[in-house]
Structure to design on (224 residues):
């Protein structure tokens, strides 16, 4: 699976957003093999951070002057937040830049593979917990939901993944959607979960909802 994802990411021209008024940042969408299937690693942000308190996100953060590039930013933040060594991450490629709706960040997502089990070291000032979500769960029919947020008195339609009282939404949900769109083959069949496929695609309905092409499932989050 890793080679196919790397091939697909390399074959496309990623979209870069350049705006000096926006805060540059980078995150890691990390895949690992856990319980016999590929899973995505998320973090729940602590209540001590400045932005997006308590929200589910990817490891990552803002650029510092001494970062060599955006990938260096993502890897440094992964080390600071959850104790990931840069040498343990195999980078498969890069996704399109994503804007946050209200906080003025432009996020560059990198896709990588992380070995598992792994000796995570969680920085409790930044991260409340780790959350592991099977790729097959994210890719099944019905997973993606429409979501609306209010910004400056206006309703903005976006996408979210509701999950047993938790919500993956905003830029994080749009990054997940983008990744699933790229890794799903031309027939609409998911190839990211070992032994799990789903040929259902509902692009027209989801497009009207504000995000297209991502289905949904209600498996449990797996927390360490």
């Amino acid at each position: 699976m890793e080679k196919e994802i790397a091939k697909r990411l390399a074959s496309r021209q990623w979209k870069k957003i350049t705006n000096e008024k926006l805060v540059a940042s980078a995150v890691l969408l990390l895949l690992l093999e856990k319980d016999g299937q590929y899973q995505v690693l998320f973090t729940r942000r602590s209540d001590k951070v400045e932005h997006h308190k308590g929200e589910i996100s990817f490891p990552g953060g803002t650029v510092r002057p001494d970062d060599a590039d955006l990938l260096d930013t993502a890897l440094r933040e992964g080390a600071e937040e959850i104790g990931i060594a840069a040498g343990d991450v195999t980078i498969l490629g890069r996704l399109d830049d994503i804007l946050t709706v209200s906080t003025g960040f432009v996020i560059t997502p990198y896709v990588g593979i992380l070995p598992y089990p792994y000796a995570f070291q969680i920085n409790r000032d930044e991260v409340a917990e780790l959350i592991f979500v099977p790729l097959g769960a994210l890719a099944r029919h019905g997973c993606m939901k429409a979501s609306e947020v209010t910004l400056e008195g206006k309703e903005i339609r976006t996408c979210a993944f509701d999950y047993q009282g938790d919500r993956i939404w905003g830029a994080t949900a749009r990054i997940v959607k983008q990744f699933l769109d790229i890794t799903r083959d031309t027939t609409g069949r998911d190839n990211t979960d070992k032994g799990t496929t789903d040929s259902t695609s509902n692009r027209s309905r989801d497009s009207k909802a504000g995000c297209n092409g991502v289905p949904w499932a209600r498996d449990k989050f797996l927390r360490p």
